[in-house]
Design brief:
homodimer, alpha+beta, Arc Repressor Mutant, subunit A, Alpha-Beta Plaits, 5 helices, 33% helix, elongated, DNA-binding, transcription (chains A, B), Dimeric_a/b-barrel (chains A, B), transcription regulation (chains A, B)
Chain lengths: 159, 159
Amino acid sequence: MNHFDYIDQQILLQIREDARKPFSQIAEELKISNSLVHQRIRKLKENGVINKAEFVIDEKQIGYKTKSYVGIRLKEARYAKSVVNDLAKIPEILECNYVSGNYALFILIFAYDNHHLRNILYEQVHQIDGVAGTDSFICFDTNFKRQITLESLVKGKQI
Amino acid sequence: MNHFDYIDQQILLQIREDARKPFSQIAEELKISNSLVHQRIRKLKENGVINKAEFVIDEKQIGYKTKSYVGIRLKEARYAKSVVNDLAKIPEILECNYVSGNYALFILIFAYDNHHLRNILYEQVHQIDGVAGTDSFICFDTNFKRQITLESLVKGKQI
DNA sequence: GCTGAAACAAGTAGTGT
DNA sequence: ACACTACTTGTTTCAGC
């Protein structure tokens, strides 16, 4: 487990909201040198706390209007690995997890519309060897979507 | 619906993978001026296609080991709005959607461990007025997690 | 572990085609 | 819609505390 101090926490809070924020500006606000900001960010990368900076694309704006979570049941548990492999080939599936409960796998799909979603499920997912059935949870609206809190992050003294 | 050309597509492909990639470098690779890169990105922002750049934080590295999707059933549909309001106050809930199917709401929770998850569900979520019950889909492993494909984005000629 | 200065690279804005 | 130039700003490295 990593150790974070107040500076690390503050840097993380800022860059996760704006990955293009100038390091020099962060330095100014925290009243530290910009080389220190640089150093800390390098260490956070080395420790795998942050990996990459991404511009967030609004899926709706580029035509993907239907978002749906889908639970997948398998004929037998041993199919899991090969099913995951086949699911990975479908570009509209953005996330795939092994889960507890009624389903073996739980995936996230973005499709152009409901019809497109239906096609992906019936013509692609259901054709995969080992898939017994699926249940869809189509998202009518996303009420909120946010990043994890960092308030509890600082183990040391907060200056 | 927006119109995208080859340049827009290429810029999006690059900055969504590395939001800190110098615009001048993108310009060089696409053999255009860096002011054009700048212009295009400004337009993509104006159109809401991209909104912000975020550094991706690895939740596991900062102590959140348990990821779980949770379906929520309500006593009556009319509770939906106030329940969403109360869910938003729980910081470990990172996403909340209205969905079709067996559940009214579908949320994503990150907790320190299974015990912490149990506490959040029993002591917080289940106490909310209108919540009838929940089903948890704890993620044992995330096989993949990726961004949407942009191959189909270009409506015009690809040079 | 941190700062400060200096060399270098990138972002920005205005002008012209 | 795009490129070019001049100007401003940010990044990065390294010697020194």
